[in-house]
Amino acid sequence: MQTVFTGISDAPAAPDIAVVIDVMRAFTVAASAFRRGAERIVFAGTREEALELKARNPGWLAFQDGAPVPGFDLANSPARLRSLDVRGRTIVQKTTAGTTGALAVADAGLVLCASFPVAGTTAEVLRGTGARTVTFVVTGDDGRAEEDLACAEYIAARVREAGTRPDPYLARARRSAAAARLAEGVRRGWAGVHPEDVELCLAADSAPFAMAAARVDGHLVLRPVAAGGPVS
Question: Domain spanning 2-225: which superfamily?
Answer without folding.
Answer: ComB-like (3.90.1560.10)
